[in-house]
Amino acid sequence: MRYRVKNLRLAPRGRAAVEWAREHMPVLGEIRREFSRTRPLRGLRVGAALHVEAKTAVLALTLKEGGAEVSLAGCNPLSTKDEVAAALVKEGVSVYAWRGEGRRDYYQNLRRVIADRPQLVIDDGGDLISELHSEGKGGVRGGCEETTTGVHRLRAMEAEGRLKFPVIAVNDSPTKRLFDNRFGTAESTLQALMSLTNTQIGGKRVVVVGYGHVGRGIASRAKGLGAVVTVVETDPVRALEAAMDGFLVRTMEEACEYGELFITATGSLHVIRGEHLREMRDGTILCNAGHFNVEIDLEALEKLAVRRREVMEDVEEFRLKDGRRLYLLAGGRLVNLAGRRSLGHPMEIMDLSFSLQALSLSYLAAHAEELKPGVHEVPEEIDRRVAELKLKRMGIRLERQTEEQRRYLRSWEVGT
Ligand SMILES: NC(=O)c1ccc[n+]([C@@H]2O[C@H](COP(=O)([O-])OP(=O)(O)OC[C@H]3O[C@@H](n4cnc5c(N)ncnc54)[C@H](O)[C@@H]3O)[C@@H](O)[C@H]2O)c1
Predict the structure, then answer these.
(1) For position 33, what pLDDT does the model report?
(2) Which residues of the chain fall short of a pLDDT of 50?
(3) Is the CB of 209 inside a 6 Å radius of any atom of ligand 1?
(4) 304 CB under 6 A from ligand 1?
(5) What confidence score (pLDDT) does residue 71 get?
(6) How far apart are CA 61 and CA 63, in angstroms?
(7) Which atom of ligand 1 is nearest to the CA of 268?
(8) Fewer Cβ in 10 A, N or C end of the chain?
(9) Does residue 416 lie within any of the structural domains?
């Protein structure tokens, strides 16, 4: 087994964090018990690029329990928890990741996963799959993608006829989008904001850029904490939805003059640019919840600054010529995972997302050859199963349709 981690002596602390996560991921626990009986991944090599932290460790160990050999790299240079990486190595997972790895090491680590010749892959953001294709390595039967940005990239590869194997867009399943993107990112983004800055959300003028699944969750939870929330959107339907949800909807040009805290969640490029930064108030806080650190134009911010310094860990001050100060959190990387004190999604949320991953991967192990190269949906029965398992754990019972109702809903004869 090969690995590259910061320090193996951190393993005991990592193991405790993984056990705590495992306790709070009962759905995946049920799948793990099933996997240890049925071994759906027996003899398969799985390569993954995910945030290397405790919840991911529970997934990696579930896949191992299912019979897979697992290699794991990070999907962000700042989100690795070194103690968890060490604990995973001790459990027999090949981990290539450490917090603060530079860009070169980040890609080198992805290539180390590829060198382990995975047959199935799990990606978060598309870097592993795109690297696999540019290296021209064969042998991969299929994969799963965790996030919106990764699915965008896969669809672009598919449109150009470049995607060489089937990939299940775990991100696009209702269970993932509704709970992970919306509630998970909302809670963890606000947690990170509060613990990195120790500032209050209540009463603050918060600007959420993008009202998709992620933005919607952040806007509503920030409002719940008492923030005065403005939404910036480019899509007319989503802008209207935000307006009817009770938010102010403004352009970036309008919002930049009065916002006190900006959170980007678009998956797009430079949604906050120099022309906006120049107009911002003294003390404005900027952060990003989208997948890559491209949503805030960091080059423009650097150019505008006459001085920069770290005022606290993961809080960087940029002083402009006229003395105004702007604060950037976690280097503009996804704030809920990249800050040292960011905890990532709640464990209960990742229980659902990673249960979808485990079951989708096991589906691919059995059916990859029947699927064409391209982006595929999570099979509906997997989505329903994960939701049903979670409801059972929560002690919630479903209302059942009567036979009469079933017939009524299938018929067309009965009207008014
Ligand atoms: N931080 C996390 O843990 C986490 C979790 C899930 C998803 N993500 C990432 O968050 C990003 C958003 O994901 P999503 O599922 O909400 O996507 P989405 O496609 O549902 O929403 C994005 C929204 O941004 C809007 N938008 C695009 N360009 C804009 C601009 N210039 N100004 C204002 N609005 C603009 C779009 O119209 C859309 O409504 C992606 O990069 C995704 O990968 C992060």
Answers:
(1) 97
(2) none
(3) yes
(4) no
(5) 98
(6) 5
(7) 28
(8) C
(9) no
